[in-house]
Amino acid sequence: LFFIVTLCNANDNGLGRTPHMGWNTWNRWGCDLNETIVKEAAKAVISKGLKAVGYQYLTIDDCWQISRNPQGVIQADPVKFPSGIKSLADFIHSLGLKFGLYSSAGFYTCQHRPGSLHYEDIDAKTYAEWGVDMLRYDNCYSDGTPPMVRYPIMENALNKTGRKIYFQMCEWGVDYPATWARPIGNSWRTTVDITDNWLSMTQNIDLNNIWADYAGPGGWNDPDNLEVGNTGMTETEYKSHFALWAIAKAPLMLGMDVSTLSGFILEIVSNPELIAVNQDPLGIQGRRVASYPPTVNETTSLVWTENCTGASNQQWKVESDGTIRTLLDGRCLEIFNCSTTWETNIEVSPCGRNLRCPNAQKWVYNNQKLINGYSGQCLTLYSSQGPSLVASGCNGDKSSVNWNLDSMNNTITTLQGQCLAVRTNNNLEVWAGPLSDGSVAVALWNRSPVAGTITANWSDIGIPSMTPCHVRDLFSRQDFPVEYRGLISLTVQSHDISMLKITPVELKKRVM
């Protein structure tokens, strides 16, 4: 069943009545961006029909700025953007698109460019003069004050300019912005930065799902930009990625080289019926409503923290060779994919499988810290209250990086008393969300490594149990030939998803 919650007032700038859609430079280009790349992307958004289906914001992420002039006005990198930011914004506006820019609520941006802390008014005025329509506001290099103190300062500065600027907050979900950001921003990040792999994508949508009750017109949960169309996942996995962001009412910000976009990926991201689910004016975030046991064990599984129950997935054995094995099935704790980057996922996988970096499964326990033998990073709670875990720097708050090892009970616990655990949630899932026409959007998602049959029961998706319904496949854009009562079961391939629109027959008759 669905419960429509009473939301506090959203940011009063009148924007974000539906989740924003567009393209952002970061996932594909990082700091290797320039005005030619942005202009070509803008032209491709038009030529490939993306503007026609709703994509409108072209956003430059970090690394566009280089300094401030003696008056404190932010300056663009003259090598990357020789024509200047206003000229680029004018070009994008001439195509009927909107222009977004990036900064940080700190002394520096995440890539150590000038941030906006203590420059909020002058930066907001500059952005308005340049014609900026969206600000993506990060949280690096702050002065230590909470983001709920710093972010309203920029929101007020933007509103004072008189220009409507969409405020996209990006503090990574650390301080649970869903619970306080609605009067400030038009969207707020709920997760760590996404990376182009299955584990990262699934972790982010899981974390985003926690906060479903807080999203709605004017303010949206944001599990980060889309990785669809890059190279780290299969086409099937990108299909799941896009459909999950659509049903979860997440912002749809593309992150690939849009100038080369074609074929299956173009078809997925421009599917008007998936986009219609995302942009439905009712604005209720779809969520996980049912799940079923996995058909077989995954080779790798994420870890997190949860309340201690004594279950086998919470029990660990620290071996003399430095490995830490789960007593669930004997797999070893490791960092993901031999990575040394900040905030790398933590997982369990078969012991000894990584010949390329065997020390990725080795850990040293020192001063209550679990230090990885390959990267030198520490097992870290992404937020002091969990449940997400990453490998990160060892100098964080004790509540995030300190662990208690109890060899008698075979547990590894946080200072708050939560247990390190292998995530064993069910792998065949039903997600659903109501739509403004009275129908329900339903996703049948198979997270397991083999095909499985997934059943959506009407009682789980908010439809009276014996109601006859029409079912439409949103990927093929075709109606099923028969009516369904009570449930629908479909076989879904590994890592694939089926996206349906289920409409009571009587409702459809009234509409017709």
Please summarize what this structure is.
The chain is α+β, with helices and mostly antiparallel strands and 512 residues long.
SS-derived structural category: alpha+beta
Q: Which descriptor suits the 3D outline?
A: globular
List how many beta strands DSSP finds.
Answer: 31
Residue stretches low in confidence (pLDDT < 50, at least 5 long) are: 1-6
Question: What topology, given as strand order, has the largest sheet?
Answer: 9-8-7-6-5-2-1-10
Radius of gyration: 23 Å
**Percentage beta strand:** 25-35%
Taking the alpha carbons of the first and last residues, their distance comes to 26 Å
* Biggest beta sheet attributes: 8 strands, parallel
Which percent bin holds the helix content?
Answer: 10-25%
Our count of helices gives 12
Oligomer classification: single chain
Mean pLDDT: 92
How would you characterize this protein structure?
The chain has 512 residues and is of the alpha+beta class. Helix 4 (120-130) crosses helix 5 and helix 6 (198-209) packs parallel to helix 7.
Helices and strands, with pairings:
Blueprint: E1 21-24, H1 26-29, H2 35-47, E2 57-59, E3 65-68, E4 74-76, H3 85-94, E5 98-104, H4 120-130, E6 134-138, H5 147-160, E7 166-169, E8 187-189, H6 198-209, E9 220-222, H7 235-247, E10 252-254, H8 263-269, H9 272-278, E11 287-292, E12 301-306, E13 316-318, E14 324-326, E15 332-335, E16 344-349, E17 363-366, E18 369-372, E19 378-381, E20 389-392, H10 398-401, E21 403-406, E22 411-414, E23 419-422, E24 428-434, E25 440-446, E26 452-457, H11 458-461, E27 468-473, E28 478-479, E29 484-485, E30 487-492, E31 497-504, H12 505-511
Parallel strand pairs: 1-2, 1-10, 2-5, 5-6, 6-7, 7-8, 8-9
Antiparallel strand pairs: 3-4, 11-24, 12-16, 12-23, 13-14, 15-16, 16-20, 17-18, 19-20, 21-22, 24-25, 25-31, 26-30, 27-28, 27-29, 27-31
Helix pairs in contact: 4-5, 6-7, 7-8, 7-9
